[in-house]
From TrEMBL:
It is an enzyme of class 4 (lyase). It comes from Platysteira castanea. It comes from the Eukaryota. GO terms for biological process: cholesterol biosynthetic process; isopentenyl diphosphate biosynthetic process, mevalonate pathway. GO terms for molecular function: ATP binding; diphosphomevalonate decarboxylase activity. Residues 15-183 form the Diphosphomevalonate decarboxylase-like N-terminal domain. PANTHER family: DIPHOSPHOMEVALONATE DECARBOXYLASE. This is Diphosphomevalonate decarboxylase. It catalyses: (R)-5-diphosphomevalonate + ATP = isopentenyl diphosphate + ADP + phosphate + CO2.
Length: 396
């Protein structure tokens, strides 16, 4: 084959954020990112939260380069390098070792540009979407079509779950090489059309301890985490799968809250302890429980990751009322402009009884805004070349 190798190739993908309802916390292998327990998450819709990544390879590039939200970043980061190496390995395997000269050369340097459609400062889990998107764009660039959650996992554990839409399980796997530590879809995003998600973006402050470092200290010191991984999670995972299959919101919501609480209990059981929940988190937790108690059943469910934002699950018919409860409890600091973002929220009038029972001592300005979203699909290919984040010169 005498065909010339392609001089420049480019691929752009988008990928979603996910929120775990059975949490991942703890690795049995820190290099391969193998977890001590399986986890289960809901993929959020990319109309509200997504990462876009363009990967380009060219004969003319002299070094690998990476830009995150327009600023050049370290392409040598071990996790970025692991993803790159693994995608290239799959590409080589696919080409069967032979020199397919029509295919993009694996020795070309690459340029990668990635950006989020949401403020990074808001502390919304961006590494899961980021690595899922990186791996998707690289795979597209090199023509790899294999199952890629195993590769995304090498970027960030939770990223493997962002490789699918809807409801996703990351099974811990048993093998030491991690080949069975994969994500798979439990149910598509269309499975539960009434399910909604409210992200309560709280004001300011970065998280004290990153999840990577935090979970390692937990593995080393928390007996509760060990019990959780060995005994609690296997039971809960089976229960959660059933609640999702049956679209049982009460069961789903209660278990999501309990699992979030147990995750934060393992953080307190870590020595020295780690605190991700704040006074405001506790206010939101209490508010959700008062709201549910007032209605006599579980209408909203909260979950918190390694940061201060609250994620609330509810069914569509509850959203307007609960959003009004949040607005009354945390009155917007300014004129309330853009307090509600994302999917439209209807208006609701609260009864005197509801206000009296649920809204206690308002905290003005504590919640910056509410993002209304829902479950959504997995990574997408962006066909339109005008959407590439890199120009024909390979620069942002
Ligand atoms: C609390 O996936 O960010 O959000 O694998 O070290 O990159 P690394 O950690 P990461 O941890 C996520 C922890 C969590 C729970 C979850 O998403 O399951």
């Amino acid at each position: 084959a005498m065909a010339a190798e392609r001089a420049l190739a480019m691929a752009t993908c988008t990928a979603p954020v996910n929120i775990a309802v059975i949490k991942y916390w703890g690795k049995r292998d820190t290099d391969l990112i193998l977890p001590i327990n399986s986890s289960l998450s809901v993929t959020l819709h990319q109309d509200q939260l997504k990462t876009t990544t363009t990967a380009a390879a060219s004969r003319d590039f002299t070094e690998d380069r990476l830009w995150l939200n327009g600023k050049e970043a370290d392409v040598g980061h071990p996790r970025v390098q692991a993803c790159l190496r693994e995608v290239r390995r799959l590409a080589r395997k696919r080409r069967g070792g032979g020199e397919d000269t029509a295919a993009l050369s694996l020795s070309y340097k690459i340029h990668i540009a990635s950006e989020n459609n949401f403020p990074t400062a808001a502390g919304l889990a961006s590494s899961a979407a980021g690595y899922a998107c990186l791996v998707s764009a690289l795979a597209r660039l090199y023509g790899v079509e294999e199952e890629l959650s195993e590769v995304a996992r090498r970027g960030s554990g939770s990223a493997c779950r962002s490789m699918f839409g809807g409801f996703v399980q990351w099974q811990r796997g048993e093998r030491p090489d991690g080949t069975d530590s994969l994500a798979f879809q439990v149910a598509p995003e269309t499975h539960w059309p009434e399910l909604r998600v409210l992200v309560l973006v709280v004001s300011g402050e970065k998280k004290p301890v990153g999840s990577t470092a935090g979970m390692q200290t937990s593995v080393e010191t928390s007996p509760l985490l060990k019990h959780r991984a060995e005994v609690v999670v296997p039971e809960r995972l089976a229960q959660m799968m059933r609640h999702i299959r049956e679209r049982d919101f009460e069961g789903f919501g209660q278990l999501a809250m309990r699992d979030s609480n147990q995750f934060h209990a393992t953080c307190l059981d870590t020595f020295p302890p780690i605190f991700y929940l704040t006074d405001l988190s506790r206010h939101i937790i209490a508010l959700a429980h008062r709201y549910n108690a007032h209605h006599g059943h579980t209408k909203v469910a909260y979950t918190f990751d390694a940061g201060p934002n609250a994620v609330i699950f509810a069914l569509a018919d509850t959203v307007a009322e609960f959003v009004e409860v949040v607005r009354r409890s945390f009155p917007p600091a300014t004129n309330g402009d853009q307090f509600i973002r994302g999917l439209p929220v209807g208006s609701a009038t609260l009864s005197q009884e509801l206000v009296a029972a649920v809204v206690t001592e308002p905290l003005p300005g504590a919640v910056q805004y509410i993002l209304h979203t829902k479950p959504g699909p997995g990574p997408q290919l962006v066909d339109d070349p005008s959407q590439h984040l890199l120009g024909a010169d390979g620069l942002p």
